[in-house]
Amino acid sequence: MNAISMQSPLTAADYLIDPFYSMVDNTNFSARTQEAKLLVGVTGQGKTHYTATDFTPYLFDKHDMDLVIYSIPQTEILDKGEWLAGLKVMKTPGIQIVYKTDEALEYLKAGIRVILLTTHNSFVVQDKGEELVKYLENTSKNFAIWIDEAHSWMISDQVNYKSGMGHNVSVYEAKLFKALGRLSVKTPYIFGLTATPNREATGVLEIIGDMKITIVNDFAPKELLLPSTSWLSSIKFYDPNSVNAKWEIWDLVENAILKLYEDNFATGIKKTMMVSAGNNNCSSGLDPDYVKREILRIIDNNALAARNERTIATMTSDKQETGTYSFNRPKASTDDDETSIKEKMIDQDDPLKIVIVKQKGRMGMNISTLGSLIYLKATDNKDDLGTFKESPIQIMGRLSRFNTGVNKDEFVEKYGYDLTKYVKTLNRKERNNLVRANSIDMLLAKTDMWTDSSDTYAKTYVSSVQQAKAWMRSL
Prior knowledge:
The chain is α/β, with parallel strands linked by helices. The chain contains 19 helices and 17 strands. 46% of the residues are buried.
C-alpha cells in the first residue's frame, strides 16, 4: 500500500489522490510493467470523478499520453459529464473524446491524442477492439488504461472463475485480463477501480498468467467518508426458511414501504427504494410480476399514492419487463427505458419511488435518491474460503451516494463534492430532515452471505446516522 502524505486535515479523496500521484511520479514507476494497479474506494468516494477530472488530465499533461482508455462493464455506468469536465481542465490541447474503438484508432494514426470511453465488450471482444489492442502492441504511442468495476471481468482464467466469483459459467476466456496482460508488457499505466476487489486481487487466489494485480491504496477510514456518503439507519433480516416466511416477509416489506413514504412526507426530500426480485418461475414465487402486484397493493391499501400514479418501475436484464406501472394499470407498461426510469427516480416531483430489479442492481444503478433496499432472494453463496461478499456489497453500495434533494450539478457547483459546506447552512430542523433523507434502510435474507456482507458494509463502507449526527454537531 502507498502511504498517505501527512497533510492535515486528511479527506477521503486523499486516500485515492495521494497514492496515485506518488505512484506514477515515482522514479521507478516505469519498471512496473506486467502489473495492473488497483485503486479501491467506496461508492461515492469519487473514484470515477477523480479519474476523469484529475488523474487523466495529469497523465496527458505530465506523462505525455497519446491515448487514455476508460473501459466499463456496461454503458449505463458512464457519466459523460465527468469526462467533459476533465477535458476543460487539461492543458494539453486538441484531445478528442471518442466512444468507438475504430475512431480512436483513426485519430491515433493521424497523430491526434484521444480519450476512448468504451465497454469491455467493445474493447476486448469485438473485432475492432482486437485491432486496437494489436496496434497498441506494436506502436510507440504512449497509452494508459483504466478498468472500472475491476472486480468483474478480471478473473485470470476459467480455472479460477468459480472460486473467484462464486458461480460457474459455461465459457470464460478471460479476454479482458489477457488483453491487459499483453499490453502491460509495454506500459506500466494499467489501472483498475473498484469498491470490492475480488479474491485474486486480494491474494486469496493465485493469479494464472504473467500479469499481477496490486492494490495500491487503503480504504479511507469511515469518519472521512461521512461528508460524502449516505448513512446507515437500519438493517433488518427475514428468515427464508421459516414456516411463516411468506407472511413474515410481506409484513416486513410493508413496514419498509411505509417508512420510505413517511421519510418522503416528513422531509419533503424524495427517497426511493430498490427491490431485488427472483427470476420468473422461481421456487419462492417472488418474481418481478408478483412482487410488483403485492407492492402496488400495499401502496393502495395504505393510501400512499393515487391509483393512477406510476409509483413502481421494473427493470430486468432482458428489458422485456422494463417499464413503469400504477395500481390502475399493473399490466400496461410504458415505454420507459432504464435511462428514463433513473431520471424519474431522481426527479423530486415524479411519483416513481420503487424500482423492482431482476438480474440488475450491482452496477449502473447510480440513483442518488436510493435509500432503501429489499432483497427478496435467499442467496447464500459460499465455499471453503468463506462467503462471497463482493456482489452483495456492490448492491448495497447503490445506496451509498448522498441524497440532498438538490440537483447534483447545482450542488457540486455551490457546495463542492461533499456535504460539509451544505450542512453548515442548515438549521436544526433542516439537518434532521437531511438525516432522514440521506439514511439507508435494508431488508435482507438471513443467510451467511448477507449477514457477513452487511456486517462488512457497516464496518468499512458506511457510517451510521448516529455518527452523522455527531459529525453535524461538530461543524
